[in-house]
Write a structure and sequence with these properties.
172 residues; alpha+beta; Immunoglobulin-like; 4-stranded antiparallel β-sheet; 3-stranded antiparallel β-sheet; 9 strands; 29% strand; globular
């Protein structure tokens, strides 16, 4: 009886370990302003429909801002152009309202309150934390970007969302 229980316990532990391997580990990003100061975080985790991105940021202009995942994991310089264009492995046009879009890195807008604080969970159903062409962990890495203005969800290349005002390198 002892050995039967030991075998059953071992089998259950192995099954649990194998099950856990299928769920990608969460990712995160420290969001910085153009002066290089941390103003927030993004927590990124697998969801049933893609990935959820929990944004918590402060010291932003009160208004609606475009948010995107960019194709390079760098946030250098005050203009953050080092982050490259939006993540776009399927070579689509910009925006959910564009008949030739959206790109994998196109997200919904982020509302910043009168106190300069933004708290939101954004869903991206076109990216993954796992390996593959739509992974946010490709060789060049990725970054989450907050733009100065609202994204119109259709105009190339960035929905008329204006300059890049905050950036965070996405890390495992």
């Amino acid at each position: 009886m002892y050995y039967k229980n030991l075998i059953l316990i071992t089998a259950l532990l192995c099954a649990a370990a194998a099950f856990g391997q299928g769920t990608p580990k969460p990712a995160h990003a420290d969001i910085i302003n153009p002066q290089g100061r941390k103003i927030g975080t993004a927590k990124i985790f697998a969801a049933k429909e893609g990935v959820n991105i929990e944004v918590n940021a402060s010291q932003l202009p009160p208004r609606i801002h475009g948010v995107h995942i960019h194709n390079v994991g760098k946030c250098d310089g005050a203009d953050f152009t080092s982050a490259g264009p939006h993540l776009n492995p399927c070579t689509k046009k910009h925006g959910k309202d564009n008949p030739e879009g959206p790109r994998a890195g196109d997200l919904l807008n982020l509302e910043v309150n009168a106190g300069g604080i933004a708290k939101a969970t954004l869903l991206d159903n076109m990216v993954t934390l796992s390996e593959g062409p739509n992974s946010i962990f490709h060789d060049c890495g990725t970054a989450i970007m907050i733009h100065a203005k609202e994204d119109d969800y259709k105009a190339d290349p960035a929905g008329n969302s204006g300059p890049r005002i905050a950036c965070g390198v996405i890390q495992k």
